[in-house]
Write a structure and sequence with these properties.
The structure holds 2 protein chains of 2 kinds. Chain A is mainly α. Chain A is built from 1 helix and no strands. Chain B is an all-alpha fold. Classes of the chains: A mainly alpha, B mainly alpha.
């Protein structure tokens, strides 16, 4: 069976994508910032 | 993969009564994955010629000993910007262009998950490329002291002391990094959230798998590069001493940070190509892909190992022996999953009904020449041998076998393979074959002599050299110009194909498998309005 992508389903998939994108973005920022606080042993 | 789907009726701009702007505004504001893919690929092609032009000037200077055409400072600038342009502005955008065009088509998605982010990801590139190359132009008018002259690696303390060009490059790298991160996030969330029903991760096309690992590598390593160059910026202008030994800093720290990004970067450039190869080899061998799961695990293994081997780039800097041994063996370990990939590629072709259209020629050429890159890489991974080869032309030859034969010829494979799908026209097979043979012959004549130059002791990044290196340098220079000129055939063939030519069928190649071949050629503006179902 083939069905069209409904607007609701696309919206739900895109919302999930946005949430995941923010999470990865936060991880990237954390990697960038945390590095400045490491001290050499 | 057993696929059932419906074809999609309709034409660009007609869906949902949608209207999109024409002319330049279309390209500035587009959120369509195919438009953005086209922009990435066009940008990459332009920058490929810019970077190529720079290195032809370098090869002209190296035609014979002595200084002929330029001063050493300008020579150094050309070397560094050539690498940065080729890596960040040609190869990476080309792979991202492939991802934009193909991933939604291959996984049954109507578009990328975050279309506006996608637009931003691309439009950050041109300003970054301008920042990289602008110092050349300014220097011509007597402003500033030219582009960065440190090589693409920005090594401290040279980069701490360098001129304005270093600042330009630092800002360019930050912008390029943001662009890469945006693209990577988009690819990851698209693959995770936009797949057609029934497409489990173990049914995902290998091209998408290759890109998924690439995207995670970018997420893990670009922030480290950005951090390193930010620290460099603060050392240069804000009185910090991260990399200044006189102030208690450590120049070697920069090398560690840079190569923590720099080595995975090699796989960032190559994994999308390794993902593409099985599709091409399977298509033209008329056989299913051999060892799908083995290749997926190969990608994952290579990705994981790539972030723990960085220090093999500077064995000679003076590391403790246990560190040398660790980095030597961990580097050599990468050859195992890579050998699995090679085995699977060859097994896919084995006893197949092979035909050698241009994409298949490039794919087989890739396997042979990239094999040379792998074997010479093993030599360089050996600490004792590397003491001889380090910073010699052997290294230059090795990484051009990896990044030209492995990277750029891989991109050419993909362009010839998918161009008929993208444009709806067939390219000229005759021109394609001429392009392949001229490229392969001139490439080998350019870089094979450089192995011998390196073995004989010629250091890299020098504008002048001892008399005994003359003959091999002359061969290399003549062949480099032939290599550069033969790429005009590539550009002309693409141009001709975009403008017209014999109509391409939906399933362009007889042996092609996968969702993308079930859409019309060219695909409609919205790729999958009707969900394909994967059995």
């Amino acid at each position: 069976m083939n069905a069209s992508f409904t607007d609701a389903e696309l919206a739900q998939r895109r919302a999930a994508s946005r949430r995941m994108a923010w999470l990865i973005g936060a991880a990237v920022l954390a990697l960038y910032v945390i590095g400045f606080f490491f001290k050499r042993g | 993969m057993n696929i059932a789907t419906t074809t999609v009726p309709g034409h660009a701009g007609e869906h949902h009564g949608e209207h999109y702007p024409g002319g330049i505004l279309r390209w500035l504001t587009t959120t369509n994955h195919k438009d953005i893919g086209t922009m990435y690929l066009t940008f990459a092609l332009i920058m490929f010629f810019v970077g190529g032009g720079m290195i032809l000037a370098v090869r002209a200077e190296l035609w014979q000993p002595g200084l002929q055409l330029m001063q050493p400072e300008f020579f150094n600038q050309l070397i560094g910007i050539h690498a940065l342009v080729m890596i960040f502005a040609a190869l990476m955008p080309a792979a991202t262009g492939f991802a934009n065009w193909q991933i939604p088509l291959m996984i049954g998605a109507p578009d990328m998950a975050l279309p506006r982010v996608n637009n931003w990801g691309f439009w950050l590139l041109p300003p970054a490329a301008i920042l990289l190359t602008l110092p050349f132009v300014l220097a011509l008018f007597g402003i500033g002291d030219g582009a960065l002259a440190t090589g693409w690696t920005f090594y401290a303390p040279l980069s701490v002391q360098g001129g304005l060009g270093v600042d330009f490059a630092i800002f360019a790298v930050h912008i390029l990094g943001v662009s890469s991160i945006l693209g990577s996030i988009n690819i990851i969330v698209t693959i995770f959230n936009m797949r057609a029903p029934g497409m489990t991760m173990m049914k995902l096309p290998l091209f998408a798998w290759g890109w998924l690992i690439t995207a995670f590598l970018l997420i893990a390593t670009i922030p480290v590069l950005a951090g390193a160059v930010t620290m460099l910026l603060t050392d240069r202008h804000f009185g910090t001493h991260f990399f200044n030994a006189a102030g208690g800093g450590d120049p070697i720290l920069f090398q560690h940070l840079f190569w923590f990004f720099g080595h995975p970067e090699v796989y960032i450039l190559l994994l999308p190509i390794w993902g593409l190869m099985p599709h091409v080899l399977s298509t033209f061998s008329r056989k299913p892909i051999y060892g799908y799961k083995a290749q997926v695990w190969g990608f994952i293994g290579i990705g994981a190992l790539s972030v723990v081997v960085w220090a093999h780039h500077f064995f000679t800097v003076g590391m403790p022996v246990p560190a040398l041994i660790y980095f030597m063996f961990s580097t050599m370990l990468i050859s195992l999953p890579l050998a699995v990939l090679f085995f699977c590629w060859i097994a896919t072709m084995w006893k197949g009904a092979m035909s050698f259209e241009t994409p298949m020629l490039f794919a087989t050429g890739f396997i042979v020449l990239f094999g040379i890159a792998g074997l010479t890489g093993l030599v360089l991974a050996d600490v004792a041998a590397d003491a001889q080869y380090h910073h010699s032309y052997f290294v230059v030859a090795h990484f051009h076998y990896a990044l030209f034969a492995g990277g750029i010829m891989g991109v050419m494979t993909g362009v010839y393979y998918w161009l008929p799908k993208w444009t709806g026209h067939m390219y000229s097979e005759t021109l394609g074959k001429w392009h392949f043979w001229l490229t392969v012959v001139s490439f080998n004549l350019t870089f094979l002599p450089q192995f011998f130059l390196g073995l004989a002791g010629m250091p890299r990044r020098i504008p002048d050299y001892a008399l005994q290196f003359t003959e091999f340098n002359m061969i290399s220079t003549v062949a480099a110009f032939a290599l550069g000129l033969s790429q005009l055939l590539f550009a002309y063939n693409i141009w001709k194909c975009v403008k017209g030519g014999p109509k391409a069928s939906d399933k362009v190649w007889e042996g092609a498998e996968g969702l993308e071949w079930q859409l019309p050629s060219p695909p409609p503006h919205h790729s999958w309005e009707t969900q394909p179902v994967i059995k």
